[in-house]
Known about the structure:
heterodimer; A: alpha/beta; FAD/NAD(P)-binding domain; 19 strands; B: mainly alpha
Amino acid sequence: MAEAPRKVQVLVVGSGAGGAVTALELARAGLDVCVLEQGSRWKLDEYGRGSLEAMRHLYRRKGMTPILGRVPLGYVEGMCVGGSTEINSGFWHRTPREVLLRWKAQFDVDGATPDELEAHFEWAEDLLGVSTYAGPLPKSSGVFKRGIEAMGWAAQEVPRAAPACKSTNACAAGCPTGSKQGMSRRILPEAEAAGARLLTDCAVQLLLRQGQRVTGVLAVVRRPDGTRELVRIDAEHVFVCAGPTETPALLRRSRIKRHVGDSLRIHPMLKVAAVFPERIDAQDSVLPLLQVKEFWPDISLGGAFFTPGHLAMGLSDNWLENREQMSRYRNMASYYVAVRGSGRGSVRPSLLGDGAPSLRYELSDEDVIHLSKGLARLSTLLLAAGATQVHPTVQGLPSIRSEVEAVRWLDERLPRSGLSLTTVHAFSSCPLGERHDRCALDSFGKVRGFENLHVNDASMLPDSPGVNPQGSVMALARRNAVHFQESLR
Amino acid sequence: MDRFGPVLLAITGGGLIAAQAPINARLKLIVGSPLLAAGVSFAVGTLLLGIAVLLTNGQGGVIALGGGPWWAYLGGLCGAVLVTATLVATPRLGVTSTFVAVIVGQVAVAAVIDRFGLFGVAARGLTPTRVAAIGLLAVFLPSVVLSTASQLSTMFGLQPKWRDRVLALASSITSAGAVLRRPRDAVAVAAYSGAVWLFESLMFALLLPVFALPLHLSSAVIAMSVTNLGILVPSSPGFVGSFHYFCAQALASQGVSAGTAMGYAILVHLTFYVPVTLWGAGAILWYGIQVGATAAMARAAKSSPQAETIDGVPVRVIARLEPPRPPAPASNFDIALTEALLTPHGNALDRKALVEVATFMSQEMQALPARLNLMFEVGMATFRFYVRLRTLRSFCALDVERRRAVVHSWAFGPIGLLRQLFRPVRSVALLAYYEQVAVARALSPVPQASTALVLEGTRG
Lengths: 489, 460
């Protein structure tokens, strides 16, 4: 016990989509890997206990991490073993070809071509069992599909990392059946089997630096008896995979600031609740599985997580008019308009209090136009599918009851002051690429100016991928981990 | 070195401003009015500047006048206000006290200007003012303290052992201060210390008549403040000497004779310290044994090895920190607010469900990042103040209907900022309420909304 502690060979900060893949790849290559996770490890039977329990235990700051700006946005991310992959819906997209080309053109990314990434996507898809839904589509997907067909728009049923989905509608509270392949299901256990060690309840405060090298981290560990200790962990290599908000905050706290936290990107999202004449029982089935691709990459339409509580939140902007609708919740389902997000955002560690990052994003005019057009199209689609009313989360905007009312928003702009937006997709706060004037990392995730410090999570995506980001994060993380391990030889 | 010149110039300017006050005071005696004295003072200044402009050919040119923002021409106004203010204050407070007050104002405004980059000054993260303030604000800025400590110890090339000690010290200071980081607690602490100060200055004041001095609270406050600042300088036990010196000086500066001032200082010191010393001596006798035991335990705890392995990860324990504080329970206001947000017309909610929702809502708001939590608390305090002004009663004392009406007047009113304040509480409260299984179940089988919202035997 008393001998001087060894150095860890590779320290991975965070166990989400980026950190888990890094740990697995490097542990399999025979490196000595330790993963530090700020959240706790939960058992399967502790999952799926409703939104409130999940917010308390699985979400960062109990789900209270809004992004500020003239239009504030609700934003949540996971903070538990597995990170946000434990609380997302498991939707899987390969990074679209156009996006990769754009990254090459704008950020001069070395490699990361569709061909190069294909093997990494296949690797991840194989491990996670990525596939389309096995059973007949649930009602909330069915009515959406009916609308898509009526409009004749391009759409797809999105594959998910949930090969044996039991449709319990618990995605956002941790999948209690174990069907959804969050990182805690397969990737992390395999990493641990390959020798990686996982320390939970460990919040990294600071990277310790010595010139061009990082010597280790300073962290606060919460012990099982509730006491807390400030510890130093020495390491030869550090991979920061703490997510799009905490990674830049940690770097900036450690005085690593060049292009760090200056370019947060998100997919702003506007939700609607649609009332149908027939029973949907969206609260009892998996969320709608189809996405409209007709207007991609600017605008995507799809299905949102639905429970009575989430419905009430969606109706709360016009609560006095809408509250009576709650009794019809069995006939309702929620859908979203998501836009690519061309506004600018930033992440800064806050000086006040416990250093929680302060997140900012200014919605661009283009974002507002896309949201307005998206609302018009989504409402038209839902009305064509048979919905009698569509309630958008816009304060002061009455429910939309006819297609003529809906198409008004093709030409008019929604009022910024009334918008109630959310997002669950954030990235690009430490972009990678060879462009020294805008990239914090080199093309393989190494922090510029450092020999042994890497970033390997959603922060590294140079720009918005325009689709659910988990696939892009995992494929790029694996590519970078392989590159790192080859460079050691 | 290019900063040395400007610093010297600023110090000289500051020194001259201090000299300006007594000079102007003399001028006021001659001309009889503070405003006229200030006017004369500025006229002389204007004349001299005019000559200087002519001698240097007025680099820039008069044509440029009229451009730029309107406030750029009002700098002189600030000077006029300052000079008039010092003219009024100096005879009452003395030169030193006046300038302490002036500097307090200056530093505060300068910090605000620097922080927000007002008047075209480049906003900067770390000015000398803020470096000085960091010591005081360690409590509120823990992450800055930690990263600064780390950076400094690396900069000075400290050995890992010493670097760890610096970091341990930094984090124990900040973690001990964590209690103040919750806005409600900080306000409470400020209120308590305000009360203590008031009480102490009353004591200073009540002893004034003993020496036939006029009972002025202002002289008592000055005497107390100067004394308390003075005894911050490490000195003798019980501050014997330093206490007397500063207390007597403060009084003497207000025209009290030296002998009387010293007598007063001795009496105040005895009044403060004799009872405390006697109580303390007794307490040491009573609790001495326990103190010894605690010290022994602390030594034992420290001797445990610092190098450890937690879950297979080798770590070096640098410091043990205060356990995190559990979130505060829902207050009566939280419950009253939740009830006003949720209750539909003419219906009452189950009390237990209400408390559960209020507790969740209050914990979520406390989970917000500190800055947002502070903004929220300030907003809610303003709301409660508004309710009290409008109804002459506290929010909690109103019946549900009136509470609902006043909440709606803000939450769905015409002012965007007020709507924003209520949006997060409302959506969190609605989420928590409708996530309860019994609520959802009660909603559906009975389609009439009014009866469906009544809760019986809720189980979350």
